[in-house]
Amino acid sequence: MNTSVSIAGVVLKNPVMTASGTFGSGMEYSEFADLNRLGGVVTKGVAVTPWEGNPTPRVAETTGGMLNAIGLQNPGLDVFLERDLPFLQKYDTTIVVNVCGHSEEEYVEAVARLADTPADLLEINISCPNVREGGIAFGTNASKICEITKAVKAVAKQPIIMKLSPNVTDITEMALAAQDGGADAVSLINTITGMKIDINRRTFALANKTGGLSGPAIKPVAVRMVWQVAQKVSIPIVGMGGIATAEDALEFLMAGATAVSVGTANFNNPGVTMEIVDGIEAYMRRNKIEDIRDIIGCVR
Question: Angle 71-74-76 (CA atoms, 0-180°, nearest 5)?
Fold first, then answer.
């Protein structure tokens, strides 16, 4: 039985990865999940310089998910290269580094500095709704997506995955812009902008006022967007958004995703990625599917 998939020539032993910002760089989860069994670990977003993130409170529970306005807090590239990347190298898993920045120049600098590192793939986060610069500004404008994709591709040695925002009118337009810019793959969806009000304090639940909605509540939207993009682009798709079970992951694969990333579910079940890997294998055995590629994009 073959569960391996390929993203721009990089082979993953199975299609299950972690979603950026929900798994750190694996250190926090390594005692709960066997990183060697994962198709890949996607790191928390890293920038050329440390980011403090947004003021607290910046996380709020919602029905069927959560809102976050962390603001891409990270220790910066120097710490990441010294601490996080060597840790991940100990494991037999694909290393996907998520890159963030305030400007095109910062993205390009980070990608250039990662060029000769052991990172296998780079995921470029142009879609975070919780930062005032970069992030959402790039992710909702097709011409900017094409422009920044071209800029990072010019200095990258690893394949580039552009992470897209769902907070747009037409997700396929954004995916095609990334493809036209030379992206090797796209990942979708990032969180959907939302808000929660604390009726007892009569104010916003998040200091940032708005935050990114993630979890099961957004899964139907995510599956729909993955399916739409799969009909338009010729590059691989990494699907994400509310995946908590093997059944959820299989929906994304059948909609056209080559791989999936598991995010919010890690918070309440640190071993969920293992359960999803096992569940996909069990589904394939039960249905006598010898190659996972036979179900990728089978729903058209």
Answer: 135
How many Å apart are CA 161 and CA 229, to the nearest integer?
Answer: 14
Listed residue (194, 195, 256) closest to 227, CA to CA: 256
Tell whether 76 is covered by a domain: yes
Catalytic residues: 128
Q: What is the CATH number of the domain that holds 111?
A: 3.20.20.70
- Domain tally for the chain? 1
pTM exceeds 0.90, yes or no:
yes
Contact 42, 25 (CB under 8 A): no
For residue range 27-85, list pLDDT tens digits in order. Answer: 889 989 999 999 999 999 999 998 888 899 999 999 999 999 998 889 899 999 999 99
Strand 40-42 relative to strand 59-62, pairing: unpaired
The predicted pLDDT at position 170 comes to: 97
d(CA 155, CA 163): 18
Range of the domain at 138: 5-294
Residue 69: inside a domain: yes
- Exposed, middle or buried: residue 258 (CB in 10 Å: 0-12, 13-18, 19+)? buried
The mean per-residue pLDDT over the stretch 180-199 comes to 97
Residue 179 maps to a domain: yes
pLDDT per residue over 108-144, tens digit each? 999 999 999 999 999 999 976 545 554 556 778 899 9
The amino acid at 190: N
